[in-house]
Amino acid sequence: MATGVVFYDGADINKVVAFYSTDTGAAWAGMTKLVSPDGGFTQGVDIRQHKIVGTTITEMSAGEKTARPLPIVDTTKDGNYFKGRIQRDSNTVISLRRYKGWRVYVNGEDVDPGAGGIACDVTDNLIDAAGADAAAAMAASTLYYVYVSNSKATFAPSDLRGSVTAPSVHNGVQYLGVAGNALQWRFVGWVFTNGSTQFKDQDNARNIANYYNRVWKRLYTNPGYVDDNNRETWTTASTTWVNANGGVGHQVSFIANGEDAADIRAQLTGYNSAGSHNRVGIQRDNAGGPVTAAESESSTSDDRWEICILDCYIPTVGRHTAEMQACVSSGTLTAFADIDRNGATADPPATLIIGKVAV
Description:
Strand content: 35-45%
Structural class: mainly beta
CATH topology of the largest domain: Jelly Rolls
Number of strands: 28
CATH architecture of the largest domain: Sandwich
Largest sheet: 7 strands, mixed
Order of helices and strands: EEEEHEEEEEEEEEEEEEEEEEEEEEEEE
Helix content: under 10%
CATH class of the largest domain: Mainly Beta
């Protein structure tokens, strides 16, 4: 929890006109913005409950202090002092938007994203480790850290930019760096560009993630699905693990924050031509084969099986993928991507990956 100096309006003690963190001596640099008629303040003196009357800053009376106890302002990642979320606006634009308020605290300054948000185009230049112009824009298939700046930034003030530099912790808050201009850039989240240098935030690609004010969003893919009121199928006769549906529509991708679990489930509906075993698994990050798998009993075209498995884990920070894989002990698996509507408004999915991730 942050501690600091609070100033109230002399005409209305319910109105806080300024707050400055005093967790460290360096934070007192912000006090140069407030100059009292009697020559300013002495560092280390408890002046937490003062009021402004005309042009004079004076201490509150005991009664006023009782009526308005010192509020606790949390500048850490619970979101109390970061009222914003990054979102996808289009394939080429993300923006920082107001979220349950407007105050985005960046090193002693409240930045208001405004009604239209603060935008970052995929063609905007990145920032380097010092918050300077990196002289290059985003590239394809790359993870970037996203930062918002205050008005004191020497490059792109009050703006939103990407960087290849991971954040550092300063007084419990994630910034681009811990000194100089890098302290004018606060970390807000991550983006991953796809192979066409585009931003995606959809069921099979949660490639925009917030550090603050996260929400749960669905992960979903249904390999081979066609909504045509008919059963769609795909097959495999492989006795070793292969990607479902020939590697088309079998994968979901997401950005992990390193704190919240990814919950991923797979379901396979199908039969085996030889009355043998069908198997389904979930592979992580395109390597190593399934980390969790299930197997059906022997099955024929008249004896179909549904297999469900779960993979719930906390991935490391960064972009990850999960793939549905399948194989057989012998024979040929015929998997049903979907089944007949039977009165439904669309073909119900029968073989799929579904889950959720906090972004």
